[in-house]
């Protein structure tokens, strides 16, 4: 597995991504590119435009009057702007109609630009024109240490792509967090799960996604624990801060929620994650109910950088919210990183 594959997909629809424009979508819609589920295929499902595919597919290109063939493209607004570490161009199920080559560009534009405004943006090539095969996922590492808000997939000259995955590190805008009570555990604010005991059914980062989980698969769920002890996950907060309120959400988990939960905290600037003595209790072992949201006011004013969630003995959570305030150093760290990754 590529090293970047464990990073969030900054473009996926469940994190707010959107395909804002495309040169052509004669056969299949551009929006399919960022669907969260794996591409599917059902043979002999013919619509008025031919065989149906779960992806984006353009018409066959013919040379124009000038003899030029040109190429097709699609622009994706990242749901979570950040540093792109890798891109996956997946041609699953496109066997005779895949593009032979593709390239990817990226840009950073503040605000909410229109497709016309994006056409005039300063685009940077992050994946050079590269060969593609049919019915395969093509992974390309990216080494451009800058924050981007949009990517443009170019296919040469035409064809079908099932999915575009854009893996990277979230870089939140500090101007939207400074001086406010925020969710310090939100993926969109830059938090990540940096360790967990078990992710048999689903990844723990799911707990940090925006919005409400629609089903069990959109949360974190462990296997049934048969040995002593309990399962756990460690969250690196968006930045150093003080957590004032915790929300433990077991929605949709009716028969596989944990019986109890607890929270511990640590300031990694003063202690080591592997040192049990460096952690202090944030929320003692507390009973939770299935399929519901639980809120707990926390009476601890210490600045922290990490929170350990323990589920007793196992089970799943839909969402974990840790509302609080950024510490002054947290604000400085976010601002410094934003400035360093802004690019020219």
UniProtKB/TrEMBL annotation:
* GO BP: allantoin catabolic process; purine nucleobase metabolic process
Q: What highest taxon heads this organism's lineage?
A: Bacteria
Provide the top EC class.
hydrolase
Enzyme Commission code(s) on record: 3.5.3.4
Pathways involved: Nitrogen metabolism; (S)-allantoin degradation; (S)-ureidoglycolate from allantoate (aminidohydrolase route): step 1/1
| Pfam families with a match to the protein in the record | Allantoicase (PF03561)
Q: Name one GO molecular function term.
A: allantoicase activity
Q: According to its UniProt record, which reaction does this protein catalyse? A: allantoate + H2O = (S)-ureidoglycolate + urea
Which keywords accompany this UniProt record? Hydrolase, Purine metabolism
Q: Which Gene3D superfamilies match?
A: Galactose-binding domain-like
InterPro entries, A to Z: Allantoicase, Allantoicase_dom, Galactose-bd-like_sf
SUPFAM superfamilies named in the record: Galactose-binding domain-like
Q: Where is the Allantoicase domain?
A: 16-170, 190-325
Return the similarity comment: Belongs to the allantoicase family.
Name used for this protein in its record: Probable allantoicase
As recorded in Swiss-Prot or TrEMBL, the protein's gene is named alc
